[in-house]
Amino acid sequence: MLDLFADEKPWQEPLAEGAVILRRFARADADELIKQIGKVALLSPFRQMVTPGGYTMSVAMTNCGERGWTSRQHGYLYSPDDPLTGQRWPAMPQAFRNLSDAASAAAGYHDFCPDACLINRYVAGAKLSLHQDKDEPDLQQPIVSVSLGLPAVFQFGGLKRNDPLVRIMLEHGDVVVWGGASRLFYHGILPLKPGHHPATGEARYNLTFRSTGKGE
Ligand code: SIN
Ligand code: FE2
């Protein structure tokens, strides 16, 4: 695909203590990442999970890596198996791992070792309500989040649900890394605006890399 912005150099924007936006960081690898998303989804298809409260999420999800984030009747958990297929989640593609390693290092997190990657797919109207990523036992490890395709408005707040929120437009290839003091900050995605992106069509994809091990 011809990408008129392919030469645009990545740059960093501080977001909060421990959090940074790496603008366009994943753009050069985006086509490969999107191809690998397709391969993962052949084995573990995207599905709309039902929350413990009985609400069907508007975002469709799948996972790759050693464990995958899933919702069950009694809560959320990281499971080694995909409940839809009964098989292990697909392996994490090398391109995913390389990108996550480079992004975490660029953000100053040199020991990040993700074993799980949640893949979100948003179509027009899909959103992710304000939440904390708190199902991971080792909160020393950051979160690396990669945006692909259509732009979306990311909200990033503080430790309390009602802390003030900043709104940031995340575009194709943008990466957000948060850890340290902001590791448990509330965040979410506003309803996706309809549109068309040359790399992903009517969708936005987001990869979030997590470490679900116990740590030292
Ligand atoms: C997430 O909070 O897990 C995903 C955020 C995003 O889609 O950018
Ligand atoms: Fe999250």
Q: Which CATH C-level class is it?
A: Mainly Beta
The small molecules bound here are: succinic acid, fe (ii) ion
Largest sheet: 7 strands, antiparallel
- Please name the CATH topology: Jelly Rolls
Total helix count? 2
Structural class: mainly beta
Domain module tally: 1
Strand order of the largest sheet: 1-2-11-8-13-6-3
What is the helix/strand order?
Answer: EEHEEEHEEEEEEEE
Sum up the overall morphology in one term: globular
In percent terms, what proportion of residues is strand? Answer: 25-35%
> Which blocks of ≥5 consecutive residues have pLDDT under 50?
none
Estimated helix fraction: 10-25%
User: Mind telling me which CATH architecture this is?
Assistant: Sandwich
Q: Give the overall pLDDT as a whole number.
A: 95
Give the CA-CA distance, first to last residue.
44 Å
Give the total of beta strands: 13
Radius of gyration: 16 Å
CATH superfamily: Alpha-ketoglutarate-dependent dioxygenase AlkB-like
Structural commentary:
The protein is built from 2 helices and 13 strands. The chain has 216 residues and is mostly beta strands. A 7-stranded antiparallel sheet has the order 1-2-11-8-13-6-3, with helices on one face. A 4-stranded antiparallel sheet has the order 7-12-9-10, with no helix packed on it. It has a single domain, classed as Alpha-ketoglutarate-dependent dioxygenase AlkB-like (Jelly Rolls, Sandwich), CATH 2.60.120. The mean pLDDT is 95. Helix content is 12%, strand content 32%.
What does the secondary structure layout of this molecule look like, with pairings?
Elements: E1 11-16, E2 19-23, H1 30-43, E3 60-65, E4 68-72, E5 75-79, H2 94-106, E6 116-122, E7 128-131, E8 143-149, E9 152-156, E10 166-170, E11 175-178, E12 187-189, E13 204-210
The structure holds succinic acid and fe (ii) ion.
